Amino acid sequence: MKHLASTTALIVVTAVPAFAAGVERNNQSVAVLFEQGRYLEFGGTFGSPDVSGVGSPTSPTPGASSGDMTESYFSFGAAYKADLNDTWSYAVIFNQPYGADVAYPTGTGYFAQGSTATLDTNALTGIIQYNMPSNVSLYAGVRGQTLSAEATVPFVADYSVVGDRDLAFGWLAGVAYEKPELALRVSLTYNSEIEHSLDTEETSLAGSGPSTTEITAPQSLHLEFQSGVAEDTLVFGSVKWVDWTEFAIAPAIYTGALVGAPLVSYADDRTTFTLGVGRRLSDVWSVAASVSYEDHTGSLTGNLGPTDGQLGATLGATYTRGNMKLTGGVSYVDVGDARTNVGGAVGGIFDDNTAWGAGLKVGYTF
After folding, report:
1. Per-residue confidence of the chain (366 residues) as pLDDT tens digits?
2. Which parts pass through the membrane (predicted)?
3. CATH of the domain at 29
4. 11 and 263 in contact (C-beta within 8 Å)?
5. Domain limits for position 104
């Protein structure tokens, strides 16, 4: 049952994109640590949000449609895990944990038309794991992460900003308990915040110039679990809390001379819940399904990220042949309704939006 547990958990944990709060695109799971022997995996995910709204009665353009202000994206990931001996293991993980691709179409008459924003990250994490005889393991690691960002906001004094790529470091630590005969595993992982300092160039009708913009990738706490419940069947899930109130993009001119508030910020922390079931159909096929939920807070959002909560479903399958396994999945998300903030009042009304994603991952044991 341990092989089944590992295979089906990976379907929903790492094979499809995350549509969670903020700008998170990857849930930064450490599931690769629990693969048997030497293991290599790589894959990609594709996300396609469809988010649009209309100007509120109090907005600069009441009733005008924004058009779809999100763009599709692709992200890549890879990981390698090996045992040093019966006690020590290690893993190296590459992913792209955060990202944003915003582009309000022009010609709509909506007040934010022509506004754009991108945020890109790449992270490389090294983890060492100590395996105790009691089925408990302890692990810790270091993460190096690059981050770059830029935005154009024509409706605010024709403002634009470019932040150069910055490299910064954080850490993680966790504990896990396993009982292989029951396909049982519970792990708890803490990811530290990572503090970036970007060299920034701002331009606007109210002033231009270089500055330094501090951006904190938020800390998080991630509980992952799975357990066999019948022959060839298991349940799995996760609970993840992210400290999104610590995340803000606040360039000096935009925040000081123009608006008096950050370009991007979040009023609430978020907790995302996932629950699923997996089943082995044969020696080569396993399938899984899961649902995810994130609470709707009702707080006003920024115009570059008009979503609030989510309810999603994922279906996936794994094909195993010899030492190779091929995992794929698709997900569909009902994106939470949101109200955007313009000068402390409701600017845009974003209702009935959706997103879908797909992913493919190849793993080798050797």
Report:
1. 444 444 455 555 556 777 767 799 988 899 999 999 999 999 999 999 999 999 999 999 999 999 999 999 999 999 999 999 999 999 999 999 999 999 999 999 999 999 999 999 999 999 999 999 999 999 999 999 999 999 999 999 999 999 999 999 999 999 999 999 999 999 999 999 999 999 999 999 999 999 999 999 999 999 999 999 999 999 999 999 999 999 999 999 999 999 999 999 999 999 999 999 999 999 999 999 999 999 999 999 999 999 999 999 999 999 999 999 999 999 999 998 999 999 889 999 999 999 999 999 999 999
2. none
3. 2.40.160.60
4. no
5. 2-365
